[in-house]
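Module 6 notes. Inverse folding takes a fixed backbone as the condition and produces residue identities as the prediction. Think of it as a translation problem where the source language is geometry and the target language is the twenty amino acids. Below is one complete input and output pair. Work through it position by position during the lab.
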């Protein structure tokens, strides 16, 4: 027996909860599948200082709790399961969860986010959140006057490095080869920036740190030159891993159109996917901005698109 809902929202970050606030207020019966990481990526960050409305900053997990509360206030219901399979070939749509349950929905909003790729070098898990981060825009501010490192050679790494020079004393890009994947203009900008140094043909071998009274702190990075085989140790107070993100869209089984990197393609100026009645918002369809506030904005758009589509139907 399947359980039917007017709107199913898959994913519980800023995009999903905002969509839930809007569909709830539009009087549409809504459930939000919270997934494996209820609250999304923000639950693994510390302080969020760039979300409007929180002039003194807010802890990521607390902010997501506030979002959830607001969505539930308007009638959305949270289900603590993950959607693992979908059938969008006919309406109502059918979805299956990891609790072996079957659901149907008149409209579906996908807001499953993305996951920052990790290297899992030695020490990375120990100092994650204690000097190691995957989001320069979120955490750069905390590294005033610090020696920081950025790992990666794409546009994100180059942009993060430039951004971090606003705060850090020095920024060193560690990239595994000589040529950059990022665009020429970004490479030139980084090379012209006197605060940016490069360790090319290099990979992180180990993150080093210390623990005082239970507080962990990154203090250094051990780097291996992949050509010479030589190891060097560097003082490091911050390290930003910028080797790309993976959108969490595998469970869709390829029925929703994505670009070559797996991000859902939405129709221009809308959150419509290739399947009528299925909408996408947030980081699962945005490889460019990836901010809580832009995700929330697109969650609002998906809810409005879904509501209009349902009422036209
Ligand atoms: P990319 O996939 O473009 O680059 C990832 C980088 O990380 C590559 O240099 C890659 O090295 C390196 N890397 C990957 N895996 C490893 C590993 N295991 N060990 C060491 N290094 C590794 O991801 P980005 O996030 O940089 O960019 C994603 C998309 O977003 C791109 O299309 C980009 O252009 C776009 N973007 C645009 C911006 C803008 O226009 N302002 C800003 C940011 C992103 P290698 O090159 O050797 O494969």
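Target side of the pair, the amino acids:
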């Amino acid at each position: 027996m399947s359980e039917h809902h007017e709107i199913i929202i898959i994913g519980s970050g800023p995009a999903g909860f905002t969509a839930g606030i809007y569909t709830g207020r539009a009087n549409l019966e809504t459930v939000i599948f919270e997934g494996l990481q209820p609250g999304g990526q923000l639950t693994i960050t510390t302080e969020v200082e760039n979300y409007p409305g929180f002039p003194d900053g807010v802890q990521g997990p607390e902010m997501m709790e506030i979002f959830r509360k607001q969505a539930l206030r308007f009638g959305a219901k949270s289900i603590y399961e993950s959607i693992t399979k979908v059938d969008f070939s006919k309406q109502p749509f059918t979805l299956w969860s990891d609790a072996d349950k079957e659901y149907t929905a008149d409209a579906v909003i996908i807001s499953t986010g993305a996951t920052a790729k990790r290297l899992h070098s030695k020490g990375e898990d120990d100092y994650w959140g204690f000097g190691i981060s995957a989001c320069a825009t979120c955490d750069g501010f905390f590294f005033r006057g610090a020696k920081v490192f950025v790992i990666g050679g794409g546009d994100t790494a180059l942009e993060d490095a430039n951004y971090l020079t606003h705060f850090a004393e020095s920024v060193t890009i560690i990239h595994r080869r000589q040529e950059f994947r990022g665009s020429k203009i970004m490479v030139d900008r980084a090379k012209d920036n006197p605060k940016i140094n490069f360790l090319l043909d290099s990979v992180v071998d180990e993150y080093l740190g210390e623990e005082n009274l239970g507080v962990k702190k990154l203090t250094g990075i051990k780097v291996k030159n992949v050509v010479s085989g030589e190891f060097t140790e560097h003082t490091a107070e911050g390290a930003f891993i910028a080797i790309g993100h993976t959108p969490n869209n595998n469970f869709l089984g390829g029925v929703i159109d994505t670009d070559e990197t797996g991000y859902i393609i939405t129709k221009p100026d809308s959150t419509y996917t290739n399947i009528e009645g299925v909408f996408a918002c947030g980081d699962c369809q945005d490889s460019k901005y990836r901010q809580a506030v832009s995700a929330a904005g697109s969650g609002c758009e998906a809810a409005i698109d879904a509501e209009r589509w349902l009422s036209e139907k």
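Reference fact for the lab report: The mean pLDDT is 95.
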